[in-house]
Design a protein that fits this description.
- The protein is of the alpha+beta class and about 290 residues long.
- It is about 20% helix and about 20% strand.
- The chain has helices at about 5-15, 50-65, 80-85, 95-100, 145-160, 175, 280-290, and strands at about 25-30, 110, 130-135, 140-145, 165-170, 180-185, 205, 210-215, 220-225, 230-235, 240-250, 260-270.
- It has a 7-stranded mixed beta sheet with strand order 1-3-4-12-11-6-7. Strands 2-5-10 form a 3-stranded antiparallel beta sheet, covered by helices on one side.
- The longest helix is centred in the N-terminal third of the chain and has 14 residues, at about 5-15.
Length: about 290
Amino acid sequence: MGRRCVWNKIGAIIVASALFLSSATGAAEVPPIDGAGLSGQGRFSSVLSPKREEFFAYRRNKVKAIAHLGLFPDNYTPSEYVFGKITDVEPWTQSSGFYISNPHLLIIETIAGQITPFAYVAPDGNDKNELTVRHNKKRIIVTYNDVSANHWFYWAFSAYGKPRQGNIRLWAPNARDAGFQYGMLDLEKSQNINEEKSGPLAFQAIKFKDYFYYGNNVNANNLSPRDNRMILRLRENFQPTKIYLKLWRNKPASLTALEDFAYVIQINPNPEAADYGTSSWEEFDDFGKNITWR
């Protein structure tokens, strides 16, 4: 399968993974995950001029579309810290566009050492509820069920046939851009996290450092250097998992301080949902080999 076909297939999967409105009081409708920014040879500039002013207009429009969620300030301006190091003339790496096009995904999980989001490569199976994002006032909950959850664990533990030990990296450029500068894992509300082998995010409030910049190694605008403080280690493969993150706009007075916002990622695998050793997974392996990883 050619790379363009795979990008189109995955983009369709993401759009098909509908995101539903919660019935809880204070809930607001969440827009579908946008994978279109990664089409056309995987370059974000294939759908957007690389000129900075047009890029910032694109980002402002994406934020405007989720204004009802109350995540970003009404007078939003793209953060100088997050976007100040990008260039006018260079394209974007394949996965960066996902972060730009989905500002409501404040925290995005990947394999440690890589930037392609799990949500970007999670198949939807036969059930449109397999990947959902719900919002309710001070919380966003991202849930992977069945096939999407199975694939999530595939990436975390054995992507490309390599032992991964369940190390995942959390990225927070969208949280930082929205004004949430600090975050911490709430271990009591989380599940299947090995705090002893995780980074400082698991036991202290850390200031997010993720940003976009021009990377000489890939000749493109890319996501910032690695930050091992943001790595979490899962305890077991293929077990129900919850990552409950407390976000603050300013440094909290204590580790028990009430968060300004909570971002929750839930993964509910189902061993009967799919055999992730079949050719469908191999297609994603072939696709991954074409990515310039950081």
